[in-house]
Amino acid sequence: MFIEVDRLSKRFDNQSVLEEISFSVKRGECLGIIGPNGSGKSTLLKLLSGVESTTAGRIELKGKQIEQYNRKELAKWLAVLQQESLPPIGFTVREVIEMGRFPFQNWLGEETTDFERLIDVILNKMGLDDLSDRHLEYLSGGERQRVALGKTMAQQPELLMLDEPTTYLDIGHQVLLMDRIREWQLEEDLTVISVLHDLNLAALYCDRLLLLHNGRVVATGSPEDIIRTDLIEEVYGTVPIVMKHPVYGLPQIILQGESFAQRKGLAKKRQGKMEILQ
Ligand SMILES: Nc1ncnc2c1ncn2[C@@H]1O[C@H](COP(=O)(O)OP(=O)(O)OP(=O)(O)O)[C@@H](O)[C@H]1O
């Protein structure tokens, strides 16, 4: 297994945030981590990328315990996409993407392989050719997110971790970003672990989903196994309509506003619980 997590727990100041988390990820797979606010998704990602230390349990990456890697070693094959990791001002798009190569430079700041061509390919893939000399502070949120992904691509990782990559993006840019990541995953056999709030994107783009609730794993499985009305209601406290995507057959959810349904006489409350009338 590429990643093996065994009975992982995390406490902050004696408050338990993650309890007995176990799962594994195969090389080349995309695992989506979903769950409500505060369920522990970001904390799990921080433990998996070595940013936070575990309280109990074991994380094995490529057959080795995570504590046995040093930071620079990990940075050569593990990348984390975070928007706030971009430098605030003063750098052009091209310079920022080149920064992804830092882990491969020697102590003089030189790299032995010619990476200029790689940077050109990435600029092109991310649709950033025309913006390569633009300073970061003059980019929109969507453009900055593409630069952030470009920087992680330059790192040529084997494992990519993403925390809410589509936040602040409009639907066009959400699909564009997720498509680029999926293409990259399939072309390079990249392993992807992504925290996602949008369950429809998670169902479309992830091979498997891990559903967290109150710091525990409720279920792991294919999108069909996880995006089910009963599980979503249990964890999120709202009853969605789950439908099959008309083209891909994958589960997609439609939200039901309770107040609207009640007003229209389509639902009523029974014993404190909303029931949708057929
Ligand atoms: N450094 C910390 N110190 C203390 N508590 C923390 C720390 N980091 C996270 N927590 C707590 O751990 C819990 C889980 O937080 P986490 O950010 O992992 O949840 P999440 O599922 O990513 O939430 P969201 O969807 O709202 O981003 C929260 O109650 C949070 O307050």
UniProtKB/TrEMBL annotation:
Domain ABC transporter: 3-239
Keyword terms: ATP-binding, Nucleotide-binding, Translocase, Transport
Protein name according to UniProt: Heme ABC transporter ATP-binding protein
Gene Ontology MF term list: ATP binding; ATP hydrolysis activity
Signal peptide: none
Transmembrane domains' residue ranges: none
InterPro entries: AAA+_ATPase, ABC_transporter-like_ATP-bd, ABC_transporter-like_CS, P-loop_NTPase
Entry-linked Pfam families: ABC_tran
Domain of life: Bacteria
